[in-house]
Design goal:
3 copies of one chain form a homotrimer.
Chain A: E1 3-4, H1 13-25, H2 31-34, E2 38-43, H3 49-60, E3 64-69, H4 70-73, E4 77-78, E5 91-92, H5 93-103, E6 106-110, H6 118-122, H7 125-134, E7 138-140, H8 148-161, E8 177-182, H9 192-206, E9 211-215, E10 231-233, H10 236-240, E11 245-249, H11 271-274, E12 281-283, H12 296-299, H13 306-311, H14 313-327
Parallel strand pairs in A: 1-7, 2-3, 2-6, 4-5, 6-7, 8-9, 8-11, 9-10, 11-12
Helix pairs in contact in A: 1-8, 1-14, 3-14, 5-7, 8-9, 8-14
């Protein structure tokens, strides 16, 4: 594995999930693999879970970790080609990426969208240039449009808590019903987490691992390239019927790009709204705004998986790093 | 040991001090104890000595260390319950603490008081919630009201430089006279260091290890819960008579909470003021403002212990971490 | 080796270069040397290459690394003696340096010049006080006037890419012609990199390893203490005749201290300007502003050594740390 930025980078989805759960049982089994190898984590935006869980995953594998907070410790990066650099950017991503590739065996990059131009964000220009010029394997720590370590974690967590030991190969039997449910927020958030969740769950649905529905108010349609095969519902109550997993997440509009649109009342999940579900487990990538995105009573109740889910970020990252180390 | 936030968390004070001095002689003796264990250091406020000495202590024990500068790399934390989080805080301490507990075997937390409300600061709400929700052992790296790693260090340093190999069990013989002496400053500083020093020295006095006096101008009384048994003196010259150790520190008023009050001249320690002492050793937790809190001539002279004291922070932290690792 | 701040700290220049290239072949050969040793990296200014390459070098040697971003995580340092510290500085460098020396076996310090006063910057007051008070070996990570890890790297890179296996001992044969060429910039930059490059190349020239020329517009003369024996040319075209290596770098005026002076057109190196050279290799310390300091066509073309050069920073740092560890 030379790149992990999308579910498309994974060959065998069930095997990938099984590998992660095996690492959780035996975290230090592959320490010789990482000996004298260095992971560089490059942050153009803040991070808590991704930073700590990926660092922990690398340490479990015996790797060294070097962290670079580009926004705080470094320089403003130029990403356009053909520009005379007489403004505020002090280094081009061509050199910055290549140099970091000289010092690290694997690199991770976090870079949020600006939410100004859909074309710019969805081209993934910065991320793709970083991959192109650094010359070493790259793990996305969340890009403008996708957050694959989060979505891989989410699938691991669904497998871990589902009643059968393998989601795959159960055709004809009951599949878990997974609902991605839009939630309110006061700020305009990226679409990276829901895009990515939709991409991974659509793939899992295609492979017969689960049943996938997206619920959101009108105007909050996600980019179709990520939602192939998903059932879309503008009625939250209807969508939640019989759900086994509800994945709560706010995102800003893709159509009216980066905007916070008006929406009908009743989109914040609480215990009452959970009643028509199949005692659904509730997931969220965190950070979560209590009683705005998701009722505190749900977060503090028995249905919440959010902490277990966050903990599983380690095994997602460790599975990816292990695959990259095996190739190197 | 599951918590280190106060002298009350220590069973046998003399043994704890002796353990620290033994680690100083043999820093790498317990490296197998920390193998594959991770210490997370969470800073809500800046730190130099605490950061480096605790990191060094963990490395000496073979641990991995992950550092999280929440104020710079992370998010503003909500600490109140029942709040609709539609303002500037982006994550509740319930989730933040629990998530960090998923990634770390032991956590350290630094969080200063706001000095706005005595009730709020002295409730230690943030620190206690962090302890409650993270689910792993916690070391205080300085809280709103106490700085136990510093005070433990101070007792270690007194033992190390005193003429008898054990402070305890010398009843009837001369005990070291220790004086905590208030000093001027231009800013309103927390009471955490003097509270903590008073708490540790009062306990040590009760156990017959030393004799403890506090000198400060009127209005600068510390909270009584920490000063039990201490002699209080508003006359610095009188308090210093025959002192063996003078611990210099500024703090803001506890009574007129967080205020800098007017005070009589003559509270900055210099060589002249040291003359009635028993050639007292001078201590300070650092950072120190030269010729404002403490005369440069004292800092640069033979009585100063401040650098040795700062160095001993490693052995205090290492003793605490070793106890926590033994339990895990 | 107790100090690395100038080429004067190196006894045998050719041997030092050969050691670095041997480490590049065998990066992990000296891991027992660094076991349980700690390198502290102290940044008063931002850093990308120096931070990562020095950290990597230390990890290769089996050392632990602790990083302190003083400007962001710490305190404003006082460097003057005899000052009443009642202003904005919160700790004196005497205590800060001494304390860091308690926790680290070797320290690295980065501190840029302020470019206000030539006397202040060229006295290297802050750097020298840090060395004096910390009590452990110190590596310069770039000081007010010199950047020796960069210049050592540059000599390593020239040796690595030159046609003979040793630059020394070839008297009578063709020596590489090395040209330091001033380049335009929009900001006032320090003279540390060109001073240091001149210092190292002048020494190498004296030892018969190469031929050294400096090209710059009038008014951009470097301090003579660093340029002993160098040919100075105000005509770029003339200076580049037959060059084997062109080292491109902007710097502000030393004479009109810290000023950006007007200069004639034609000082940005491009492919056309390279034609009278001996297919010269082009070097730059990075970060570089494309099409302002140096043409993008050169950076992206076959003559550029900039990425290889940045990669070699590891071996320069590792050679220095290895020498310091051998002594300790």
């Amino acid at each position: 594995m030379k790149l992990f930025s999308s579910v498309k980078d994974v060959n065998n989805l069930q095997q990938f999930v099984d590998d992660a759960l095996a690492l959780k049982q035996n975290p230090f089994a592959y320490q010789s693999l990482g000996k004298n190898k260095t992971l560089g984590l490059v942050f153009l935006n803040p991070s808590l879970r991704t930073r700590l869980s990926t660092q922990k995953a690398a340490l479990n594998l015996g790797m060294n970790v070097m962290i670079m907070n580009m926004d705080k410790e470094g320089w403003a990066l130029e990403t356009e080609d053909g520009v005379v650099m007489n403004g505020s950017t002090v280094e081009h991503i061509r050199e910055a990426a290549a140099v970091m590739g000289e010092y690290c065996d694997i690199l991770g990059l976090r870079s949020f969208p600006k939410l100004h131009s859909r074309e710019e964000d969805y081209s993934e220009g910065l991320f793709n240039k970083f991959v192109k010029f650094c010359g070493v394997p790259v793990v996305s720590l969340e890009s403008a449009t996708l957050h694959p370590l989060q979505s891989f974690t989410d699938l691991i967590t669904i497998q871990e808590t589902w009643k059968t030991s393998s989601l795959s190969g159960r055709v004809g039997e009951g599949l878990p019903k997974v609902v991605l449910a839009w939630a309110p927020h006061v700020k305009a958030l990226p679409q990276a987490v829901p895009n990515s969740f939709a991409e991974w769950m659509s793939r899992a649905q295609k492979e017969g691992m689960l049943d996938f529905t997206i619920a959101h108010p009108e105007g909050y349609e996600l980019a179709e390239q990520f939602t192939d095969g998903a059932k879309i519902n503008h009625n939250l109550e209807e969508a939640l019927q019989g759900a086994d997993y509800v994945y709560v997440k706010n995102w800003s509009s893709y159509k009216e790009y980066g905007k916070v649109l008006t929406y009908p009342d009743g989109w914040m999940l609480n215990n009452e709204k959970l009643s028509p579900t199949n005692s659904a487990k509730v997931m969220h990538c965190l950070p979560v705004r209590r009683d705005l995105e998701l009722a505190a009573e749900v977060l503090d109740g028995p249905n919440s998986l959010v902490i277990q889910e966050a903990g599983n970020r380690v095994w997602a990252a460790q599975t990816v790093l292990k695959e990259m180390l095996k190739n190197s």
